[in-house]
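haha ok so turns out i had the wrong file open the whole time. this is the CORRECT one, sorry everyone. sequence first:
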Amino acid sequence: MASAPGLSSPSQRLGDTKSPSLMLVLGFWIVSNILVIGWWWLEISDTWSWIGSTDGYLLPHRLRALGITVPGLLRAVSVTVFVLAALAPLLLLFLFRKKFSNPVVLGLLVSCCLALSISAHEANLLRGQMQQSLDHEREFAHADLVEGIIRPLISRIVETYVQILGDDHLGGSTLHTHVAINYMFDSLSFLAVFALGCLLLSPTSTWICLLSFAFYTQTAIYPGRMGPVFIAGGIFWQLFLLVSRRYPAAIISGLIISFARTDVVFASAFVLLSLAAFERRWPTVKEWGVFAALIGISVLVPKLLISMHPNANFGSFLVTHGDYFTKVLGNLVNAKMAVAIASPVLAIAVVRAFSITRTMAVVLPAALIHVGIVFLIADFSETRLIIPALGAFAFVSSEALGNLLESKSRAEGDAA
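then structure:
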């Protein structure tokens, strides 16, 4: 069941699962990223080319030296092999899940495994574009464009990774750097989904939601980059902080995120009002203050940055410069793929959701506000940015399906 409206503590038990602490989530994120960076930096992976070379080889370097190779035709197989290898720990974790004293630790481990799989999958599919992607992202920090103003944080992060790990131009490996950079974002997105799920969902529903989000993450790779998954992770991370009443952390996080994506901070802030409405009360003074702070951050930070770069071209960023007819019409036409992907989720949500739940009150307002920004403002017009909304549907459908499965299990136990 969803947690009661009066949730008083982020560590309150929900079935057998406890909401993870902020330090535990950040600890997993930092440690797992250090391990991934160290793995590539020490060139441990070069002992066996897990994801294949540019020609799609899967053999150790010693065998390559002897002239033993695998044809480039097997590149698709190499992708599958690596993804399966990254997901293999999931089976072991589930087999031994009852041995874990804290099931939250199990969930965070699964999140990190899924993030590694997604990162490697993207690196393989975009192999020919990886160097261009790194160069393009680094240019944002120096370009006199709206992206160069709003996204300096991500550009600096990419620059730091390239300086540490290098790329093909600097004597390192673009592939290694690309996987490490994307793992940083992927892992935080998955940890955010699981952490928020622990606050809102039953244990079964939380697992279903995590795996559903992984499915949407895989599908997001095909239209292009993983940007929408990062955005979804940012929204769910902000929601996790706000629902668990970690208001100072939410404001600090919102300030950092606003330098890259102001729409994430703006959309997530409304959970404070929607939760109060769900609980049939007026927001408290503290909630109004946090709401005003986050909205102010999302509006003032880009204004400040734009004022510092008056010659920049930021026309497509402002709401007043949006293309309100052709963009919306085009997005609706191109949304057929997203609707097809979401149809099973929509079916479950419609069939099982007879009343508004706490989960809906948390995720749906933020998702609807964000998708409105996607459809109205020209700068955010790419259809694949609907992934945050699909993530919200994953929460809703997972709650319905998880409750259905758990009710059947309870009924069978009572009959026995």
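The beta strands are 13-14, 17-18.
again sry for the mixup
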